[in-house]
Design a protein that fits this description.
A hairpin with a 5-residue loop joins strand 9 (231-232) and strand 10 (238-239). The chain has helices at 7-26, 43-59, 74-86, 105-111, 123-131, 139-150, 170-179, 194-198, 244-247, 261-280, 282-285, and strands at 3-4, 33-39, 62-68, 92-95, 159-163, 183-187, 203-206, 224-227, 231-232, 238-239, 253-254. The strands form three sheets. The chain has a six-stranded parallel β-sheet. A three-stranded parallel β-sheet has the order 3-2-4, with helices on both faces. The N and C termini lie far apart (45 Å). It is built from eleven helices and eleven strands. The protein folds into two domains: 29-116, Rossmann fold (3-Layer(aba) Sandwich); 139-261, 3-Layer(aba) Sandwich (Rossmann fold). With 287 residues, the chain is an alpha/beta fold. It binds NADP nicotinamide-adenine-dinucleotide phosphate. NADP nicotinamide-adenine-dinucleotide phosphate (NAP) binds at residues 140, 163-166, 168-170, 187-191, 194, 207-210, 228-231, 261-262, 265. NADP nicotinamide-adenine-dinucleotide phosphate binds at residues 140, 163-166, 168-170, 187-191, 194, 207-210, 228-231, 261-262, 265.
Length: 287
């Protein structure tokens, strides 16, 4: 049976450390603050945003939400981002996705000042990650790397196979795993014979959003399985992409859903807000 990777516990430990750092920052008269922009009324986004605000509260990060109407124009969204860019009391800006399809998310992300890009989605952050410079790393890939570190899972020389090529998970994960000296393969909806790749994976990371997509017969004995997927079953219960009950019998390590990658994503966002605050106040307050 596989070791179950306890993302909830690792995330709690990270939040405790961040709380100490946040207290220290406040002794210098600085109050870290995150601004979250939400457009429209997506129910899943509301849950994610609530988790983020709860984590901010626990750590002592100030939090402000900006709710925009579903039918706003791109110009209004950019104006708000520009206003938040200029506001010295705000250290991090997050644009909650998805946003309505009439808006251009890439243009909106480009407007965020890279110094406040705590989600790591701006071209500047992505480019720096690729060329190996210090930057904000997007929170889910960063959280997964932290789990590997915490469980002493060394990626060097391993075959890592990623399922899903989104800008927020799959693509930045390629770079994060490359930085750990893995050999990385990425699969997507056009990949033929996906099993031929997954069966060869020492580490298999699934981020596609389809319940029970990864079955036992797709997995190599002893593989490390990371499940990013968040899907609801017919009873409204949250499930990952992996058939957990079956796959845990052949894996060496496996993340549960919930309680695996999800809490790490929020913890790494908090990490990035503290990092942004420190960098913005480096000269002023010797942080
Ligand atoms: P996304 O933008 O919808 O991308 C899904 C990816 O999966 C696409 O690259 C797509 O391929 C690929 N895909 C879809 N069906 C496939 C199939 N049958 N075989 C192979 N690949 C397939 O998703 P996302 O935003 O990255 O999110 C993925 C999942 O992770 C969702 O369930 C989401 O809720 C979850 N998520 C969890 C966290 C967390 O913190 N735990 C964070 C972010 C996302 P194409 O590119 O070819 O269309």
């Amino acid at each position: 049976m596989a070791v179950i990777i306890d993302g909830k516990q690792v995330a709690r430990k990270i939040r405790e450390e961040l709380k100490k750092e946040c207290d220290e920052i406040k002794t210098k008269g600085i109050r870290p603050k995150l601004a979250v922009i939400m457009v429209g009324n997506n129910p899943a986004s509301k849950i994610y945003v609530r988790n983020k605000s709860k984590a901010c509260e626990e750590i002592g990060i100030e939090y402000e939400e900006f709710l925009l109407e579903e039918n706003i124009e791109q110009k209004e969204l950019i104006e708000l981002i520009n206003k938040l860019n200029k506001d010295n009391n705000i250290n991090g800006i997050l644009l909650q996705s998805p946003i309505p399809s009439h808006l251009n998310i890439n243009e909106a992300l480009k407007a965020i000042n890279y110094k406040k890009d705590v989600d790591g989605f701006t071209p500047s952050s992505v480019g720096k990650l690729v060329i190996g410079e210090d930057t904000f790393i997007s929170c889910t890939p960063y959280g997964i790397i932290k789990l590997f570190e915490e469980y002493n899972i060394d990626l060097a020389g391993k075959n890592v196979v990623i399922l899903g090529r989104s800008n927020i998970v799959g693509k930045p994960l390629i770079q994060c795993c490359l930085n750990k000296d893995a050999t990385v393969t990425i699969c997507h909806s056009k990949t033929q014979n996906i099993e031929q790749y997954t069966k060869n994976a020492d580490v298999l990371i699934s981020a596609i959003g389809k319940a029970k997509f990864v079955t036992k017969d797709m997995v190599k004995q002893g593989a490390v399985i990371i499940d990013v997927g968040i899907n609801r079953d017919e009873n409204g219960k949250i499930k990952g992409d992996v058939d957990f009950e079956e796959v845990e019998k052949v894996a060496s390590y496996i993340t549960p859903v919930p309680g695996g990658v999800g809490p790490m994503t929020v913890a790494m966002l908090m990490n990035n807000v503290i990092k942004a605050t420190k960098e913005q106040n480096k000269e002023k307050s010797n942080l």
